[in-house]
Design goal:
The chain is an alpha/beta fold and about 400 residues long. Helices cover about 35% and strands about 15% of the residues. The strands form two sheets. Strands 1-7-6-5-4-2-3 form a seven-stranded mixed β-sheet, sandwiched between helices. The longest helix is centred in the middle third of the chain and has 32 residues. The N and C termini lie far apart (about 55 Å). The structure holds pyridoxal-5'-phosphate. The site of pyridoxal-5'-phosphate has 12 residues, from helix 4.
Amino acid sequence: MANSDHHIDTQLQHLGLSPEDNHGIPNPPIYRTSTILSSSMAQHRHEVPKPYDYGRIGTPTSAAFEQSVAALYEADDCISTPSGLSAISTALLSACDAGTHLLVPDSLYGSARRFVEKTLSKLGVEITFYPPRINAEITSLIQDNTSVIYIESPGSLTFELQDIRSIIEIARARNITTLCDNTWGTALHYPVLRYGIDIVIEAGTKYISGHSDTNLGIAAASGEHARNLRNTARNLGICAGPEDLYLGLRGLRTLRLRLEQSAANGLAVATAIKDHSLVNAMLHPAMADSPDNEIYLRDFSGPCGLFGVVIDGNIAQSAIDKAVEEMGIFRIGDSWGGYESLIKQAHLSGTMRHHATDLPDGHLLRLYTGLEHGSDLIADVQTMLDKLK
Ligand SMILES: Cc1ncc(COP(=O)(O)O)c(C=O)c1O
């Protein structure tokens, strides 16, 4: 059996398997249950140990997935949730108390932004949005009651990286808890718990499950943070569905291959279009001319297939609509991390940002490159851009 001394790619193939408990069958079965019977009244009264107590609280299926992700992140524990957003909300609820102050990046994923603005604030948590590239200057926003700094790096839609090493140092010196949405970086490319983040969150909906057919979330941590996470999930009644947990665990087997193919396609497309006459800016931290490339090279061992491009603002919306609708491979859609390439347009106006972004003027498109052949993807995006000339 693989253990923590083995390369993470070897561990990915063996985590969560339990043939000795399942008639020699390697993959754990999908346990669908609410009831878990006790063998005696004494066990029912918890006087005798019972490995699994109630379906919502945990089954061998959830344990296999959660323990596997915890091992990948070198964490004591991991909770699974029915979506990435519920992993974010559960982790924030586990870390924030009424009367305390939370710092969140202005590039926060949109639905998480709604959660903190509309729900967390109602519970008496004070919230400040910080410019995502504030880095060490975050000290100027720290108050006496600041208890949590939330990080998402790169940020949603605008892809700014954060200098998490300096933010962690500042937070640790002040006993502030740090949370990081690591859906873009993944456990393979951005081991944020090793860098000192207290709680890592991922939308398992994306690369972990990887086939656009699953809604799933994870939050992993150690020590007291892990205990708070587990208790909060339990008190909220959070539990992921058994099929989704199974698909999440199965997704881990091919995570490396899918992630690298998707990431390589993303860089190939971004590199091919960066000098196009209609492109005003590429939003991709792994590109050499990104303002965040130094931090990227220091902290990440690879990118993923999600990035942005700002194109000429004088192009008529109707022309963009037509060119995008005529694309042969990229489909119009939210989400990412699956096998198929996706495109969407983003609008940052109104309530989406408190601070001005560093973006040049123009239309913002978000591209996700899936597992298709890179040259087909390049041709599809180039053809779309050429139609806008
Ligand atoms: C960075 C990031 N975090 C979290 C989520 C939420 O995941 P889910 O859709 O599973 O709730 C998303 C979804 O797009 C995301 O892009």
